[in-house]
Amino acid sequence: MSLDPALLAILACPEDKGALLYVDDAGGEFLYNPRLRRRYDVRDGIPVMLVGESTVLDGAAHDDAVRRAAAHG
Questions:
Q1: Are 26 and 67 a contacting pair, CB within 8 Å?
Q2: Which pLDDT does position 3 carry in this prediction?
Q3: pLDDT in tens, 14-69
Q4: Residue 1 has pLDDT above 70, yes or no
Q5: Is the Cβ–Cβ distance between 31 and 24 less than 8 Å?
Q6: Which residues face 42 on adjacent strands?
Q7: Residue 2's pLDDT is what?
Q8: How far, in Å, CA of 56 to CA of 36, rounded?
Q9: Is the pLDDT higher at 3 or at 38?
Q10: Cα 17–4–22 angle (5° rounding)?
Q11: Pseudo-torsion of CA 65, 66, 71, 72, nearest 10°?
Q12: 29 and 42 Cβ atoms separated by less than 8 Å
């Protein structure tokens, strides 16, 4: 499933208010803030934009998320 591009254009990280990257492949669907290395899951097509429910990715997972986002376009 893919998020609507219009929705993606207005979504921002609730912590730093910056833009998010969209990642969708076999590993799952999520929004990613590469500045804070914070991952926001998308559940049943709905982004969960709560800082308390996000996860912080380490070096290798961060690199993978950025690579996957770039591959998605």
A1: no
A2: 84
A3: 999 999 999 987 768 999 999 999 999 999 889 999 999 999 999 999 999 999 99
A4: no
A5: no
A6: 47
A7: 80
A8: 8
A9: 38
A10: 50
A11: 70
A12: yes
27, two tokens: 């590993």
Per-residue CA distances from 15 to 23, 70, 72 (Å): 19, 23, 24
Distance of alpha carbon 69 from alpha carbon 73, whole angstroms = 6
Question: Scanning the structure block, which residue is given the tokens 């097509």?
Answer: 45
Q: Indicate whether 7 pLDDT > 80.
A: yes
DSSP letters spanning 13-60: -TTT----EEEEETTEEEEEETTTTEEEEEETTEE---GGG-EE--HH
Q: Which two tokens stand for residue 42?
A: 């998308």
Residue carrying the six token digits 């990257």: 21
